[in-house]
Structure prediction request, 447 residues.
Amino acid sequence: MEVTGKQQFTGLKVAFGPELWWGANPGYLVKYRRPVGAFTVTGVFQNEITRQGETSSSLAIPTPPTKRATLHVTTQRGPATLELGGIWAGEALVGRQFQLVEGSGAGQRVLQDRVRRSDNWGVKAKVSVARGRWNWYGQGAAMGLVADAGPTAVQTFTGWNLKDSGSGNQWNLLSGFTYTTGNLSVGPNFLWQKPIVGPVPASAPVPARPRNILDDPFVVRANREQTAGEVLVTWDPTPATWMYAWDSDMREDARLAVSAGFTYRHFLTTQDAAIGFLGDGRTAFAFPGATPKRDLWELRGRVVSQLRPDFRFILNVFGGTAEPNGDSQRLVRRYGGDLRLVRQHLKLVTSAKWNDWGPYDYHRDFNLTFPMQLMGDLSYSLGRPAWWDVPSTRVGIRGTWRSLDRLSPRYCPATTVDGTGATVCDPTAPGVDGEEWEIRTYLTVGW
Prediction:
């Protein structure tokens, strides 16, 4: 439930529930914003009442209940916007022990420390300047070991991918600018971040072990040490319907709008351990290690076209290198795309991917890839077709086809007998690629 204040309570918002966002602990949020002279001041307090119940997704692992309080102050000075924010979080983690490793190679030392009250605090500052064709911003943060604020959805000037992860245990600096001429916009963006306490590598001597969020007060995952850069090029002849708005799929009205971006990340260390689930889908465990230091790159493109009010399409393409969530050392080189087309009451969705993970999070956790994946979905809607899978009344048919190799689940070129005498698949046996397919018809009713 969300409550918004009016009249004398303008600026007040309260939200509470058992899961305010995916994986959130039951709790409530209180937010209050008001102008104070030339400044706008915003305060937020969050209190998590208890820990979330069991989950079967590694993307929403419940964390220990905590409290957070933030204060944000912003003001305008000519073309510049100045912002300053502070956070206090993780009080329940004070006193918890954690391991850290110093040195490298044979000189590594395993030490033990505790979370202190000074580790609950974090600060962030940002300067944005908008001057016609040119826009620039600079941002920096220093976050205590457990001053975890969560991911940020704030967009600055354009649709950059490199952002502050919002997690604790890090220093970071970001800066980028955009230049616009006519309908064309070019925007490079840069990120540097480094954890205050680095990860525990799997190669560290006993009794060291990689940290994990189930057993330790903090981990090094999204705050992994890296230097990264990206450049984003956009052609948008109708800026009133911004191409990077969250509902751009529905609102973009250009006959042709295009964006293309390139991102390069230079990771200087490994990570702490991720959480996965066993085959029963319920039992969580920590991987014994993580991916090594490496460089990753990715190209992404998006095309939106509304040729007529009743006919439009959206195309997304990608390609590059990526790594799994777990401890597999294999680097994945993947590419593909999807096309969505709507004409009057008909909606067509197609996708094609090569050497990519499957649709479920455990595919990326365990680095399970398919040589090729093809999907097509055609539906007829009684109302106006929606771009998302929101409730609506429609009937459709969907077909999915995948090829399988030794890196895919369910690949079985031959069988063998295990130690218990049972017949099992041997995915390492020589053989041609396998395949699997599904045809599904459906009827959904929405009101």
Notes: Residues 109 and 416 are 45 Å apart (CA to CA). The two ends are 21 Å apart (CA to CA).
